[in-house]
């Protein structure tokens, strides 16, 4: 039994593994991500507050700012905050435009 016990023992640890800390792998600093860029946009007679937030080094997400309600509108992306806000504003102006009167049915 004694010899069997020695076969199942773990070998002594001979090399030491060092664990080093690595800088967080984020591409945008926390300070910059915490400060969205907000712009007021007048679209089809309504005033909207649109904010752009960095999500990557060269990618910004624009969305409508709505206090107290859920924001169900899909975000729009661009290489700059102005581009992302412009894409969202262009889309809102297209979908919020009053529909043209259709042909009369007599």
Please tag this protein with its features:
single chain, 106 residues, alpha+beta, four-stranded antiparallel β-sheet, 3 helices, 24% helix
Provide structural commentary.
- This protein has a four-stranded antiparallel sheet, with helices on one face.
- The chain contains three helices and four strands; from the N terminus they run H-H-E-E-E-E-H.
- With 106 residues, the protein is an alpha+beta fold.
- The longest helix is centred in the last third of the chain and has 15 residues, at 81-95.
- It has a domain at 30-95.
- The chain has helices spanning 2-7, 30-33, 81-95; strands spanning 37-43, 46-56, 59-64, 76-78.
Which whole number gives the mean pLDDT? 75
Amount of beta strand: 25-35%
Overall outline: elongated
- Tell me the number of helical segments per DSSP (H or I, 4 or more residues long): 3
Spatial arrangement of strands, main beta sheet:
1-2-3-4
Coarse structural class: alpha+beta
Low-confidence stretches: none
Order of helices and strands: HHEEEEH
DSSP, total strands: 4
What is the chains' assembly state? single chain
State the distance separating the first and last CA atoms: 103 Å
User: Main β-sheet: number of strands, strand sense, barrel status?
Assistant: 4 strands, antiparallel
Gyration radius, rounded: 28 Å
Helix-residue proportion: 10-25%
